[in-house]
Amino acid sequence: MFMFRVALFCYLPIVLLMATPASHAGPTPELHAYSANSEYEPEVLAILEDIKVGQLETALAKAEAHISKFPRSQIGHLLKADILQSLAIGISDIGDQSPLPQVNLIGFKHQLRNRWNHKAEQDQDVHNKIPASLIALGDNPYVLVADMPAGRLYVYKNTSGTPKLVRDYYLTVGSQGYGKQIEGDNKTPVGVYEINDYIEGKKLPDLYGKGAFPVNYPNLFDRYRKRTGYGIWLHGTPSDTYARSPWASEGCFVLSNDDLLDIAKYLNPEARTPVVLSDGVEWLSPEQHQQRQSEFLQVLDQWRKDWESLDIDALSAHYSKDDFNFGKSQFSDWYKKKSATAKAKTFVQLQLKVDSLFAYPGERDMFVVKFRQQYLSNNFANETQKKQYWRRDELGRWRILYEG
After folding, report:
1. What percent of the residues of the chain are helix, what percent strand, and what percent coil, each to the nearest 5?
2. Cα(283)–Cα(293) distance, rounded to whole angstroms?
3. Which residue, among 246, 180, 252, has the nearest Cα to 209 in the 3D structure?
4. What are the tens digits of pLDDT across the range 117-164?
5. If 0-12 CB within 10 Å is exposed, 13-18 middle and 19+ buried, where does residue 232 land?
6. Which helix (DSSP H) or strand (DSSP E) does residue 399 occupy?
7. C-beta separation of 345 from 162 below 8 A
8. With contact defined as beta carbons under 8 Å apart, do 191 and 222 qualify?
9. CA separation (Å) from 81 to 96, 108, 193?
10. Which CATH class is domain 5-283?
11. Cα angle 394, 397, 400; round to 5
12. 246, 172 contact by CB (below 8 A)
């Protein structure tokens, strides 16, 4: 990747809760923003830029200043050593003369590559675009999106219903990558999850750094797919390490301690901040995002209209009959119950308030939606929260895989 010396680099009854997102509880106890975290990566990239153009003396001065500020920066120490070696005898690549094990060097190069590629994305203005997974944020103040191949964690703010990027961080995932299937495979799961707890760093081994935010893996879809394992957390790094290699955890997703302290102000376990762990991000323009949001909400609204019509055949057409409700119940039983209920109704009115709607990563044409449902009929009324998983079938029709 990098070469030294001269060759260096040589609305409707469906309501989308957009304008008034729920209030945020503020920073998690004992965590706060750390001002230096925004300096680490730019400094590393500045050193690389000088190396690229052959300004080794300037790169050395920047590396020494970086190490003084971040003494646990293993990347900083490696770059300084390489610069010194190059000034003395010349080397051909990062770590060319390093005594570190090859696996460590591969990890360092992977980290540098991810950080450098992110800089290129910034230059291409990708951060003014929106991840395709973020269809509707509802009343969530913030949502996290992990682009695991790129080793990046993004924080989006709900700004009148439009996701706006506020922070992004270098990210470490499982040592065997992502796409978790079984316990112990050292992979980070792909899917839509929620932050559901906070554990103080002082209650944890040093491996987890300044604290941990567990997520609800395995979720309903993971259980349906018979995926196993537990203990998937967003956590920090050991006290002797500033940042780990992109693939280095046992399945968790990891930030430097400085970045964990910074991201904490956006996380609220009580409100269950959503986390999209993605095997790749499709970027949309704001106009493309609005169009896709409208398309998905129309699917949900047609389901609502068909229920209000009391036409059970029209309503049932929205449901997948194969492995109905993730195999938890039978479609025939559901159909008989709905038909019997409809006969006692003279009218049904539904109002839906969408809490969140995300395109599901790692799956073809699937989305998960949470909404609050207000139900009114001639003989019954209630309000409940629902979750649905939808998938487009081979004929292009959207069908409900699960409802609960």
Report:
1. 35, 25, 40
2. 14
3. 252
4. 887 776 667 778 999 999 999 999 999 999 999 999 999 999 999 999
5. buried
6. strand 398-403
7. no
8. yes
9. 10, 13, 41
10. mainly beta
11. 105
12. yes
Structure tokens at 259: 């970045």
SS3 (DSSP) at 64: helix
d(CA 180, CA 191): 10
CA atoms within 13 A on the CB side of 263: 33
Q: Residue 150 has which token pair?
A: 């790129």
Within 10 Å of residue 159's Cβ, how many Cβ atoms? 14
* Total length of the chain: 404
* Chain centre to alpha carbon of residue 235: 14
Helix spans in 245-352 (H): 257-263, 286-308, 312-316, 331-343
* pLDDT tens readout for residues 342-371: 999 999 999 999 999 999 999 999 999 999
Could you give the residue ranges of the DSSP H alpha helices within 328-379? 331-343
Q: Can you give the residue ranges of every domain in the chain?
A: 5-283, 285-403
Q: 10 in helix, strand or coil? A: coil
Least confident of 10-19, 133-142, 377-386: 10-19
Q: Taken in order 178, 182, 183, 189, is the CA torsion positive or negative?
A: positive
∠ CA 272-274-277, nearest 5°, is: 135
What's the CA gap between 48 and 119, in Å, rounded?
12
Spatial contact of 21 and 141, defined as CB atoms under 8 Å apart: yes
Was domain 285-403 assigned CATH 3.20.20.300? no
What is the C-alpha to C-alpha distance for residues 52 and 389, in angstroms, rounded to an integer? 48
